[in-house]
């Protein structure tokens, strides 16, 4: 929580207050994290990977919390994936040792990465060009350490990386060897799987992700390069992959919390969604079919990921304080600090009668985006009104 | 900047670093604020209001910074508008005294508001129902202070508030008097003006906002209620209002920074946009016409406000390090920490040749949303590479 510098005036209790003991007493909007759902989601994927002999390297970009990371890894050292170097530094300073920074490395990040390796953190980075390999090698020499890098593979045209058939693949591997950089392996991410919504299509996407990754590794091995790790992953493919032959590592992040986009993809039920935004009714417009709440896009994020799905959830799906869904009640509109609740268009449901002061919970479209709008998680257990803990989130780059 | 708790290990310089002395040396992504443009934008609206004898009450929901607030109000006491009670507490503890909390009051916020009034802050709140008036009066008695409230008027169906013709208007005013709450006046916001894009339509929206506000005030006065303040405002109407007869106060927030949505509305040029996100090229995909940068939606926000406008700017418009626009180069796609730059579809422009490590600046769709993704402003002056200061932002509720 933020602490404001005082300017010699007395504002009784006007600064940040003590954590509330109960959900009902929390100032709103506030982010809730259901510990039971979190633990169930963590166990679901870790047991699935354990059964296949694949290492799970959770992506901490969603939770950005040491408390959640330790829940996923009681060992407290990893392996984890991070999306920023600030995350790498934060988790390193809390004891984590084995990390992959899953963003293409640039000159300024290479130098910062080497400082972490110098401090004993096994931080691996991504490259997909000979230029990055050469630059990374120079950063390693300047930092007095040996860098370790994955070659990023493009399995579905989603973003960066080389296709498995790209002749540059072997060239990048050779450039890494030439530059004195250790080849950690190859890494790919089936980002396009987020746009799917049937089990069959997800199984196909997962098999494609596996096949492309293994083909890329085979190409490198055939060229005489060691490729110890074959890393794949996206939450949808991680849960639908039937065969992971040749894959050594799985990465996923949003599976810890899940959200309405993942529900639309078909990876979870609304009962699996572990985070929600607590809000308070601040007005009603029955003539318009509106209920106004104090959670706008600042608390929910501007993410409209479900707009492209079969069921558009607006800015979120509305539950009562206990987590029970109000049928077809969504956040239809959002301004900075106002949300407008309305019945989904086309539904015959009646608007519930919620008076000013009533507390509700909103399930988010995209857990990564919604959680990032908040300072901390108010940790609760299903069917329990107590706020058991407040887990801070880190942010920044 | 965040400070991580150390765990007895040596991570040389791995924590947050000293502020960079130059823009070119900043770790990316980073938020830049052009002080010259900020001052020009502030002066433009304050002189416009001074010429009309209307008090300007800047909305601090966009900047959320004491340094920016003092730039707008060298007096350091107000008047200002705030969107959360955390903002009210933050600005109060930095010396501001005259504030309006422009969100409908609820039981838990009424109590917190009274603590600020007890501390000597003239914090006014919004109501639009007799229930809120009664609740607010009770909170005032419990807190040993006299609350002050605006009645929220709906001038364009945008959100909350009563229409000027609503018989409840006088009932709410009577309920305030009955509850011992001071009527500060009436307040309205032409939120629908954000969806306009021609000067004529903006002039009409501004006149409607004025006329509705004055009509509501006249209704209250005719019923024997004092209505000292007639408060209107939205950045588009504030800049296009030709006649403000009967209006005593103007509120606006995004005008300080402006953004691509305001450019699409026609209130500013791209040269007026005072904030931008500094990013670094981390990859290229010439075969796809893509340049990958390290600014995704975490740095830019998920706001796609220009998608509904005549020119869709994607997730932002791209400039070089000096602020010069690359013709038709936009952030076409964004994932959490990756942005994909591409030429706007339909344009004949060629993709610029930007190598890995090149720094660019991205103009945001929505300044309120983009700024909220960052911890601080790196303050620069036009055509100067020096980072003159770092101004922290507050957040939370």
Structural summary, described in words:
The structure is a homodimer of 397-residue chains. Helix content of chain A is 29%, strand content 24%. With 397 residues, the first copy, chain A, is of the alpha/beta class. The first copy, chain A, has eleven helices and 17 strands. Chain A folds into two domains: 133 residues, D-serine dehydratase-like domain (Lyase, Ornithine Decarboxylase, Chain A, domain 1, Beta Barrel); 206 residues, Alanine racemase (TIM Barrel). In chain A, the strands form two sheets. Chain A has an eight-stranded parallel β-sheet. The interface between A and B is large, with 87 and 87 residues.
Short description:
Chains A, B: Keywords: Lyase. Chains A, B: Residues 274-381 form the D-serine dehydratase-like domain. Two copies of one chain form a homodimer. Chain A has 397 residues and is an alpha/beta fold.
Key features of this structure:
D-ser_dehydrat-like_dom (chains A, B), D-serine ammonia-lyase activity (chains A, B), TIM Barrel, DSD1 family PLP-dependent enzyme (chains A, B), 11 helices, lyase (chains A, B), 17 strands, 6-stranded antiparallel β-barrel, Lyase, Ornithine Decarboxylase, Chain A, domain 1, 8-stranded parallel sheet, 24% strand, 397 residues, alpha/beta, D-ser_dehydrat-like_sf (chains A, B)
